[in-house]
């Protein structure tokens, strides 16, 4: 093995990558108390690790009762949206070094949804709004034997909104949704957009009528919270604006 | 305890489970029990594509695809099953397109295709463009499309229900499936689902490794439930290590990156795959590439201060191409490594990725209780199952294909069976096993911690049964797993509550991982040859005379309660292709 390798290995062991970080977590367990409260945990962690790694450290080494959802741990499954330092993010896509670990890192459940335990919220109303916009391809007539043709340009038209992982970071960052849970919310509109602008789909009118409802797109106040919150980089506010425009022009 | 009755119960809501659900719901009263919300499943993490010989961009046919699958699996593939996989691939892709999947398109508007490891033109002549894809989020799009169609079909889901036991009743000397027992995460309540047909589609077991592309939730729950009830597990020694995981984290970077022209380089900048696979180079099959990477590392040509990784180099590709074809994985490099893939190579290492083995089934998805006997009413599809279409090494893009082809087949077969079958009587006190398991953990005053045992398991698996294995390392693993299984009896949890007790579920999942790790190591120890993903340094060659056969592992419980793994073997189905030396 080359000498430089050995030198660098030696150098590396001199400095510990670990720092002490305080996680300030919003705890709630109705089996124990009706009140939610903040609890601080101090852990040693490499700041290049994820907030999710920090939560796991707490759960696995300190307090097994800390409860949160997670699965893939790299921003694809959409399980671990939470409010971290006041902003909606995925815990698995947020590195500790990027959110100022000098101060306590606050972790709370996403807002506007019923908290069930610690960071776990009731996702059912969120998924119901999604189901209400008919999020599936609707066509008429006989199916072709081969694939339906679609130009690369037509495919590109709705590319952005196909990225949605239904994590609810957008919907639960929306002030309109906080005030009125009846609002469909950005995620449902994003998923309607994905079909309204798909050249193969034939039910855009129906979806637009659903979103023309008093709880539909017109509730959007264009605050861009949703766009800021989206861990997939979807231009959510733009997608909502395109749906609004389609409602006026009936062109899509 | 609550009792539910359904015609068909599906365990798991990833690609295979939802593909099955779409078929089963049309034909029978169906419930899908899933420990995660449906769109959280790890199918969504698959990136590169789904193979099918559509021949949209160049000449191709399903026979070539069959050959590549058989060769890729190092001839341990059951060839009748591989033929079905390759033949039905075309309709499987077209079905998804009709369901709405937004594939990338050619200039003609047809589904675009790209190259992938091990897929070749005319039996190995050159790489062929066979992978149908949607950027580098094909799995995400499949998962979303299938869920969308489940919504359309009104599929009934029980979300966050953990299936912890398989119920089997012997009727006139025949073992039949009677249903499953599930634990409801939200309430801690135990539910018995009596069903005429049960389909396992609960995914893989990758979490017994430390560096893995698998989700935290991939803990082999379906395999473990069946194994505990005396059903065999097939070919568990064969595990795939994907060549390009993000260094230390294991997060998957698709083979599509190499399909788009990405190159693996060692610390000298050398394109080392030219030495190991002169024709297919960086697109050789995954087992070959992973071994080559570790050979480079062991021989001192690894990168970084510790020489423990190599580079995936995309810097010669135009940024527009990376943005259009590989947006997600380039973002992973930026997010997790702080690296800009336009200008810098990405540090990678092989990552534990896919279980080729699993619950043995025939091509209809029916589960086998030995080499030939079907368990009436029991089905499995996807990574949890072993058909075997992947043999000793799965080709990239064949797993998204597998879940669609065999998920559909299992869904139809199970619902048709349920239509004509009667309910099998539940065993007496059907929930007793789960109730005892849950109560024991909740009341345990033991001193062992789940996280510590899991850490030790993952470390021993990484150290001893990864890409390179020897008798010595596997024995070390077997011993260590035995020790951990002993200590597991003394495990305790902190959360004693009923509501969302993930502490409890992690303990149960660890028990499953320990059982399956033991099966894997014991199966690997007995296979004294090298084939596909199973590489024995002490037996570096394939041995068709003694080992051209599937491993079948059974759990045996002695009179004194001691558990052992008993191994048996099953012949490989060979139709057109005679085993040849495998070169890429």
List the defining traits of the structure above.
A: alpha+beta, Ubiquitin-like (UB roll), Fumarate Reductase Iron-sulfur Protein, Chain B, domain 2, B: 584 residues, alpha/beta, Methane Monooxygenase Hydroxylase, Chain G, domain 1, eight-stranded mixed beta sheet, 16 helices, 22 strands, iron (chain A), electron transfer activity (chain A), iron-sulfur (chain A), 2Fe-2S_ferredoxin-like_sf (chain A), 3Fe-4S (chain A)
Structure description:
The complex is a heterodimer of chains A (252) and B (584). Chain A folds into 2 domains: 16-121, Beta-grasp domain (Ubiquitin-like (UB roll), Roll); 124-249, Orthogonal Bundle (Fumarate Reductase Iron-sulfur Protein, Chain B, domain 2), CATH 1.10.1060.10. Chain A is built from 9 helices and 7 strands. Chain A has helices at 3-14, 51-62, 124-132, 152-157, 175-179, 186-196, 204-211, 225-229, 236-249; strands spanning 19-27, 37-45, 81-84, 87-90, 105-108, 115-117, 120-121. In chain A, the strands form 2 sheets. Chain A has a 5-stranded mixed sheet, with helices on one face. Chain B is α/β, with parallel strands linked by helices and 584 residues long. Among the domains of chain B are: 248-350, Flavocytochrome C3, Chain A, domain 1 (Alpha-Beta Complex); 432-571, Methane Monooxygenase Hydroxylase, Chain G, domain 1, CATH 1.20.58.100. Chain B contains 16 helices and 22 strands. In chain B, strands 1, 2, 6, 7, 8, 9, 16 and 17 form an 8-stranded mixed sheet that branches. In chain B, helix 1 (15-27) packs parallel to helix 4 and helix 5 (221-228) crosses helix 15 (502-526). The longest helix of chain B is centred in the C-terminal third of the chain and has 25 residues, at 502-526. Chain B is globular, with a radius of gyration of 23 Å. Chains A and B meet through helix 1 and helix 2 of A and helix 3, helix 4 and helix 10 of B.
Which secondary structure elements does this structure contain, and how are they paired or packed?
The complex is a heterodimer of chains A (252) and B (584).
Chain A lengths: L2 H12 L4 E9 L9 E9 L5 H12 L18 E4 L2 E4 L14 E4 L6 E3 L2 E2 L2 H9 L19 H6 L17 H5 L6 H11 L7 H8 L13 H5 L6 H14 L3
Parallel strand pairs in A: 1-5
Antiparallel strand pairs in A: 1-2, 3-4, 3-5, 6-7
Helix pairs in contact in A: 3-6, 6-7, 6-9
Chain B lengths: L1 E10 L3 H13 L2 E5 L15 E2 L10 H11 L6 H21 L13 E9 L4 E7 L5 H16 L2 E4 L1 E11 L2 E11 L5 E11 L20 H8 L4 E2 L4 E8 L9 H4 L3 E3 L7 H4 L9 H13 L11 E4 L5 H7 L1 H11 L8 E10 L3 E2 L5 E3 L5 E7 L4 E2 L11 H23 L11 H12 L4 E2 H15 L6 H18 L2 E2 L9 H25 L17 H4 L1 E9 L5 E9 L13
Parallel strand pairs in B: 1-2, 1-9, 2-6, 9-17, 15-18, 19-20
Antiparallel strand pairs in B: 3-5, 4-5, 7-8, 8-9, 10-21, 11-14, 12-13, 13-14, 16-17, 21-22
């Amino acid at each position: 093995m080359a000498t430089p390798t050995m030198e660098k290995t030696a150098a590396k062991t001199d400095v510990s990558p670990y720092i002490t970080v305080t996680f300030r977590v919003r705890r709630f367990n109705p089996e124990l108390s009706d009140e939610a409260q903040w609890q601080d945990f101090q852990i040693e962690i490499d700041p290049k690790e994820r907030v999710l790694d920090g939560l796991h450290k707490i759960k696995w080494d300190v307090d097994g009762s800390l409860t949160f959802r997670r699965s893939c741990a790299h921003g694809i499954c959409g399980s671990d949206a939470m409010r971290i330092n006041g902003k909606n993010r995925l815990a698995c896509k947020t590195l500790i070094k990027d959110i100022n670990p000098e101060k306590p890192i606050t972790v709370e459940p996403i807002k506007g949804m019923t908290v069930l335990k610690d960071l776990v919220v009731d996702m059912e109303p969120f998924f119901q709004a999604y189901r209400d916009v008919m999020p599936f391809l609707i066509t008429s007539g006989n199916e072709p034997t081969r694939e339906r043709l679609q130009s690369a340009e037509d495919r590109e038209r709705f590319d952005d909104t196909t990225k949605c992982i239904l994590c609810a970071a957008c919907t639960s960052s929306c002030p309109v949704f906080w005030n009125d849970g009846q609002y469909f919310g950005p995620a449902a509109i994003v998923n309607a957009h994905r079909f309204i602008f798909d050249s193969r789909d034939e039910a855009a009118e129906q979806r637009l009528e659903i979103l023309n409802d008093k709880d539909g797109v017109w509730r959007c106040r264009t605050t861009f919270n949703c766009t800021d919150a989206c861990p997939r980089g979807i231009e959510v506010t733009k997608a909502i604006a395109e749906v609004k425009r389609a409602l006026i022009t009936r062109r899509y | 305890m609550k009792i539910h009755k359904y015609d068909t119960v599906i365990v798991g809501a990833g690609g295979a489970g939802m593909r099955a659900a779409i078929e089963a719901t049309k034909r029978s009263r169906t419930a899908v029990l899933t420990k995660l919300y449906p769109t959280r499943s790890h199918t969504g993490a698959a990136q590169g594509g789904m193979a099918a010989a559509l021949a949209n961009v160049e000449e191709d046919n399903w026979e070539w695809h069959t050959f590549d699958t058989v060769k890729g699996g190092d001839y341990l593939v059951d060839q009748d099953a591989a033929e079905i996989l390759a033949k039905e691939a075309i309709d499987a892709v077209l079905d998804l397109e009709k369901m709405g999947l937004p594939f990338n398109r050619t200039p003609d508007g047809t589904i675009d295709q790209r190259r992938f490891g091990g897929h070749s033109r005319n039996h190995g002549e050159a790489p062929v463009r066979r992978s149908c894809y949607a950027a580098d989020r094909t799995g995400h799009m499949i998962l979303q499309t299938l869920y969308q169609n489940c919504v359309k079909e009104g599929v009934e889901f029980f979300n966050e229900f953990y299936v912890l036991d398989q119920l089997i009743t012997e009727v006139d000397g025949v073992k039949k499936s009677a249903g499953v027992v599930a634990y409801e995460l939200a309430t801690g309540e135990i539910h018995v689902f009596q069903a005429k047909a049960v389909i396992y589609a609960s995914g893989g077991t990758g979490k017994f490794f430390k560096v893995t592309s698998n989700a935290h939730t991939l803990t082999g729950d379906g395999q473990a439930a069946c194994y505990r009830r005396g059903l065999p597990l097939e070919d568990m020694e064969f595990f795939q290590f994907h060549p390009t995981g993000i260094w230390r984290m294991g997060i998957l970077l698709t083979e599509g990156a190499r399909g788009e022209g990405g190159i693996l380089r060692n610390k000298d900048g050398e394109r080392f795959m030219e030495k190991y696979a002169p024709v297919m180079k960086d697109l050789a099959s995954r087992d070959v590439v992973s071994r080559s990477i570790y050979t480079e590392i062991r021989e001192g040509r690894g990168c970084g201060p510790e020489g423990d990784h190599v580079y995936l180099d995309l810097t010669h590709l135009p940024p527009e191409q990376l943005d259009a074809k590989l947006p997600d994985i380039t973002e992973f490099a930026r997010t997790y490594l702080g690296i800009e893939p336009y200008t810098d190579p990405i540090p990678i290492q092989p990552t534990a990725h896919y279980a080729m083995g699993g619950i043995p089934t025939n091509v209809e998805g029916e589960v086998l209780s030995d080499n030939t006997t079907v368990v009436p009413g029991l089905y499995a599809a996807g990574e949890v199952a072993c058909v075997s279409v992947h043999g000793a090494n799965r080709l990239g893009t064949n797993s998204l294909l597998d879940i669609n082809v065999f998920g559909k087949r299992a869904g139809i077969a199970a619902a048709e069976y349920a239509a004509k079958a009667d309910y099998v009587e539940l065993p007496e006190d059907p929930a007793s096993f789960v109730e005892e398991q849950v109560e024991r953990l909740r009341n345990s005053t033991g001193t062992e911690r789940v996280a510590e045992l899991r850490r030790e398991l993952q470390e021993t698996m990484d150290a001893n049964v990864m890409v390179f294995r020897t008798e010595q390392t596997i024995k070390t693993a077997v011993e260590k797993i035995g020790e951990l299984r002993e200590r597991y009896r003394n495990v305790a949890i902190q959360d004693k509550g009923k509501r969302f007790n993930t502490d409890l579920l992690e303990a149960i999942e660890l028990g499953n991982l320990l059982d399956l790790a033991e099966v894997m190591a014991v199966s690997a120890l007995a296979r004294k040859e090298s084939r596909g993903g199973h590489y024995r340094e002490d037996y570096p060659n394939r041995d068709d005379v003694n080992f051209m056969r599937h491993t079948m592992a059974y759990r045996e419980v002695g009179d004194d309660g001691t558990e052992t793994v008993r191994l048996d073997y099953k012949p490989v189905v060979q139709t057109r292709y005679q085993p040849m030396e495998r070169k890429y």
